[in-house]
Design a protein that fits this description.
This is DNA-directed RNA polymerase subunit beta. It comes from Microbacterium amylolyticum. With 208 residues, the chain is an all-alpha fold. The chain has one domain. Helix content is 74%, strand content 0%. Helix 9 packs antiparallel against helix 10.
């Protein structure tokens, strides 16, 4: 445990200087290198327990600074795709109760295969959604990366549907809450499109 109780990656002074300089080319190069290194490190790790620890710590340890690099990257890049997956995982961990509410409402109204692709149980409790997103995130590093991207995209589409329908419920009585949910739905829909694109690019070996 002690090996993973500190950040997996710690930006060096060089990376700090990159942020200060705000050189887009250097920031992009660093983002791509760190994303590729993290992915390769976990994929090459043979000990399942170590892999679980490494991936399980990403929500609170190890890649917060690196994620600041990734957040500048477009969706059609490896760091950009990982950043979006990281945000989805973080949002579920942060408020699993709301995530469950949105997911269940979306599943009831969305007549597509997305709930099946995402793989959540029916109904999905907050704890089960946390377990699901952790499983999907783990699959991104140890399984088929494109499948993990597609499952996250499906998950986002289900939640976006739920947020949209619940926003309609609040439109008259709590317009501000309705606006927040509508904004969240739009963001989730955008993530779904971007992650689906990343999955297609990965399958063509074009996600760099």
């Amino acid at each position: 445990m002690s090996d993973f109780s500190k950040p997996v990656f710690r930006p060096s002074d060089t990376l700090d200087r990159l942020f200060e300089a705000e050189d887009p080319a250097e920031v992009s190069r660093a983002a791509h290198q760190t994303a590729a290194t993290l992915l390769a490190r976990v994929r090459n790790e043979e000990d399942p327990e170590v892999v679980d620890r490494l991936i399980g710590f990403t929500a609170t340890h190890g890649i917060d600074d690196i994620a600041q690099l990734w957040s500048h990257m477009p969706a059609k890049s490896l760091p950009g795709a990982l950043w979006r997956m990281y945000l989805v995982q973080l949002s579920i961990h942060h408020d699993a109760q709301t995530a469950s509410l949105l997911y269940e409402r979306g599943r009831a109204h969305l007549h597509t295969g997305d709930p099946i692709i995402a793989g959540a149980p029916t109904p999905a409790s907050p704890d089960e959604l946390v377990a699901l997103i952790n499983t999907i995130f783990r699959g991104a590093f140890t399984g088929d990366f494109a499948v993990a991207l597609d499952r996250t995209a499906a998950f986002c589409r289900v939640q976006a549907s739920g947020a949209t329908h619940i926003a309609d419920d609040y439109e008259v009585t709590e317009p501000e809450r309705a606006t927040e949910l509508t904004t969240r739905a739009a963001r989730l829909s955008s993530f779904a499109e971007e992650l689906s694109l990343a999955a297609r690019l990965w399958r063509r070996d074009d996600l760099m």
